Amino acid sequence: MRARRVMGGMLFAVGLMLAGCGGAPGEDVETQGIGTREDPIPSCSDTTTGTLHYATSAYRDVVGYSGCSCGSWTRWGRFTSYTRTTSLCPTPPEDALTHD
């Protein structure tokens, strides 16, 4: 009975070794070249679509914006889950701009 368990355990171990735990090794990020990839930023000269971010679900106080604002990509303020799409060109309030 004990020999049967030992043989079963050995067969299981050999099966794991033959199957290879974790599959085939993949390429690392440097080999793939995606660590240094730089795609061009698409032009937004023909659109003004962006996302307004609001402080609360009442959608009254704009606290952030991301998108194309009058021909250039813009991000400012805080980003929340209360959003609406807009085609306006919003200007950020003074307190929304960060200075490094």
Quick structural gist:
This protein is an alpha+beta fold. Helix content is 22%, strand content 23%. Strands 3-2-1-4 form a four-stranded antiparallel sheet, with no helix packed on it.
Number of strands: 4
Query: What is the SS-derived class?
Result: alpha+beta
Query: Roughly what is the average pLDDT, rounded to an integer?
Result: 75
Percent helix range? 10-25%
Please give the radius of gyration in angstroms: 28 Å
Tell me the series of helices and strands, N- to C-terminal.
HHEEEE
Unreliable runs: none
Can you characterise this structure?
The protein has 100 residues and is an alpha+beta fold. Helix content is 22%, strand content 23%. The chain is built from two helices and four strands. It has helices at residues 2-19, 29-32; strands spanning 50-54, 62-69, 72-77, 83-86. Strands 3-2-1-4 form a four-stranded antiparallel β-sheet, with no helix packed on it. The radius of gyration is 28 Å and the shape is elongated. The termini are far apart. The mean pLDDT is 75.
Characteristic key phrases:
single chain, 100 residues, 2 helices
Could you outline the blueprint of secondary structure elements for this entry?
Elements: H1 2-19, H2 29-32, E1 50-54, E2 62-69, E3 72-77, E4 83-86
Antiparallel strand pairs: 1-2, 1-4, 2-3
